[in-house]
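Dear colleagues,

As part of the handover before I leave the project, I'm documenting each prediction I ran so the next person doesn't have to rerun anything. This entry is a single chain, and its sequence is reproduced below.
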Amino acid sequence: MTDYSELKRLAEALHGAEWQLVDGDGFDADNRFVTSQRRIDDNKVAFAEINYGHPEAGMGEPFQSEQVTAGEFIAAANPAAVLALVAENERMTSELEQAQLIGRISCNFDGYKAVLDERDQIKAENEALRKAVLAAREFIMHEAEVRGLLDENNEVSFRHPRRQAAIAIIDAATSKGEQA
């Protein structure tokens, strides 16, 4: 982005000066001037002169269209117009920065939403695994009951350490899941 602060400062210093393209008079009748309404000793202040030239100098041709257009452009590029352009640029820059921020927020939200979706997917998978593990525990306990492998507390007997270990692992895993 271009910094227009110096251009803005200069335009503000001249603000209030209405610029216009006028024909010369008297000795300068063949010339045109970009002037301001600000006056010094009742004379308009000329900011730029578009010199037509004098016939004595061998320059008797009429104004070229580029000269007229240049004068009109200089008059139109007055402080008020420059300040309006700088203000519009500042407004558009601010809008662009806001749009970029919204874009970053949107990207962050989309990323956050993706993380939440993934979390929900993992929760669903964990719930399915928990149900499968509880079903496995129920199967082990039912099989132990049918085979007469339970002790007096209806737990798998110490004489069957692999079944006891499987039940202990299942109980530990499912109790952690219930606490969370």
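The first helix runs from residue 5 to 13. Strands lie at 19-23, 32-40, 43-50.

All the best with the project,
I.
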